[in-house]
Amino acid sequence: MNKKKIVILGAGYGGVHSAxxxxxxxxxxxxxxxxxxxxxxxxxxxxxxxxxxGSRVEPESVLIDLRKLFNATKVKVVxxxxxxxxxxxxxxxxxxxxxxxxxxxxGIGSEPADFGVPGVKTNGFTLWSxxxxxxxxxxxxxxxxxxxxxxxxxxxxxxxxxxxxxxxFTGVEAAGELAExxxxxxxxxxxxxxxxxxIIVEAMGKILPIMSDKLIRKAxxxxxxxxxxxxxxxxxxxVGEDAITIKSGKVIKTETLIWTCGVQGNSASVDLGLDIAQxxxxxxxxxxxxxxxxxxxVVGDIGYLEENGKPxxxxxxxALQTAETxxxxxxxxxxxxxxxxxxxNYHGNMVSIGSHYCVAELSGVAMTGFIAMMMxxxxxxxxxxGLGGFNAIWEYAMHEIFGIKDNRSLVGGHLAKKTPTFxxxxxxxxxxxxxxxxxxxxxNTGWLKDAKIFASAxxxxxxxxxVATKPAATTVTPLLSHAPAPFQWLIDNFIAPHxxxxxxFIIGTELAIGLALIAGLFTVLAALLSMFLCVNFILxxxxxxxxxxxxxxxxxxxGGAGRAFGLDYFVMPWLKKLWNKTRFARSTYLYIDKxxxxxx
Length: 600
Hints:
The chain has 600 residues and is α/β, with parallel strands linked by helices.
């Protein structure tokens, strides 16, 4: 049997999801080859670009290295710009090479639509790529630097006026992020916050038009709270270098226009020779096949299919669901089973306004505030887990929660506060010394010779009963008068009959914990063992209230206490490097590593 070659064009949401699903379907089939081609070596989280533009997160935080995603799979990653499809020979032609295919998945995405408004392309900023977001971030910082030196009042107002065109999801999210970074920049450059104007200009009569009226009102209230002005029924007619003109004739002087008024299919689709519908989108049938070629499938924003008389919306859920339809039908064609038509199943919409507030509709349930923001994070985590497993979630948590700056997360900066590890190093050594002391004390009091762990009276009889009920510890007042029934059953049947053996094990464990903490070696494991041992002492009715000191002290040591004046400083990076090189770690994404994508 000849090998089947599946080529995917574009590493957006639809393209990457297609590649992941195809790998799962055919990972044990050596007759299937899968290649994904994109001009960039990374997948961009487009729904998080506003956070980069507003300086909430670092620029590389929204990038996921394709080589890392597919490192331990049969998916071949190619960085190239494709320019043409030869349908007769079934070859994709790129700048760096040509790629044969039996099945082709086209997921080249979309681009901002300017609707023919003069000056948008030359004088406005868009927010539809990583490059766009970084440009806005740098531009915003630049205008504040210039404004702090500007002595002309009119020019200063112009610099400090920021206009966001469009009040859809992207526009509202961008404005919310800019309102938050405004506060930081005003403080940094000694500018009065009231001098800075952020204006959302919307051509339609309301913001977030697909949301319910209740959520629209709540979004309006929060925008006003952030001191963001909203202008509706105000289509922009022209964009100049230092001003925009509204249909009413009003002119707003500004050097910052962020255009978020809509998207269209990627205009590069015209050069591919496929059947194009309105706004550069590629026509498909119900199976997500391009209408003229049965072995070419179209996924994501670039595809044009009507449901109930309306084209599929250009959103992430559409990209993921069309990818699932395309992969199912490619698999069906290869395995000679039944294809299925595409059927959308949307779960809702979420719009964050800054880092602390969100409005959402999920499965018909309206949410606002903290709950809505939490759900937005959970949806992102769900997507990232399917994409890059534990590692992708870890990086997201570090960027969004644990490494966030300026308190810009749903829980503020409480989880991002850092304590220098050399302070807890002192606590680490002290707790370690106390465990060593406990072990030595047990040895001196006969734990290696005599039974100190006793069965219950019910488990004994006759002459031994009086001895069996003797308290195991006489120098403390136990937190529990007797062990819980399940734990006592364990003592009666397994521990007490071999008391000296278990006592020896306890002493050895205490010594190991103590020496590990003193040396700062495997500190997290030693701290967890410390807590586990303390809980066992409590349940066996052998520990008093002072045991809690050990427990909470161990909790404090979980934050990297072994990396200051400890062996973990040397050992853990070495072990991590060895672990990350294993195929198991790469295939399961069970590793923690710094992002490999760096943008200069």
